[in-house]
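B., you asked whether I could sanity-check this one before it goes into the benchmark set. Here's the sequence:
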Amino acid sequence: MKKALFLILDEYADWEGAYLSSALNQREDWSVNTISLDGSINSIGGFKTSVNYIIGAEPKDFDLLVMIGGNSWGNDNKKLLPLIKTTFQNNIPIGAICGAVDFLAKNGFLNDHNHTGNSAYIWNDYENYNPKGSFLEEQAVKDKKLVTANGTAAIEFTQLVLELIEFDTPENVKKMMYMNKHGFYNYCEKYGNPFLA
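And here's what the prediction gave me:
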């Protein structure tokens, strides 16, 4: 079974990973697990969350790291860097959204990738942000084994991460995200009623 680790910090943006986690968790060949600096954290939406793993005690054989945004990514906790650095070095797929992308920029992880985020302007003072790739003003960007997204792009983020890990055919992933973005009845008009298939 493939394992996805959702890296969430205190005051994490609970909506940013909802589409992706639910898609993965409904498949028998994927498991969804949470990881953080503390065993219990709170989301921006008020969910008290008990995490599966504390950073430093995570499994070494995970298949996807998802970095969910929120209000705590200005954190300089030294435990975050080894996990993320090792994940990049091992060529494990990574998805980062909103404030998590800011953290990647600040620590130089975006330099070799085309990417997006909330705004490149806020990274101007980051001495480790020296991109060879381009900042693209798009909702979400996939480059190599990395997907980045701004904080309003939960659906686009989900689509590109699912494509990155080859979760399903590109057409099926696109159809799944079309329903989430445009609603059931627009989906039926475009693709037909899935319950009558």
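One thing to flag: The two ends are 29 Å apart (CA to CA). Otherwise nothing jumped out at me.
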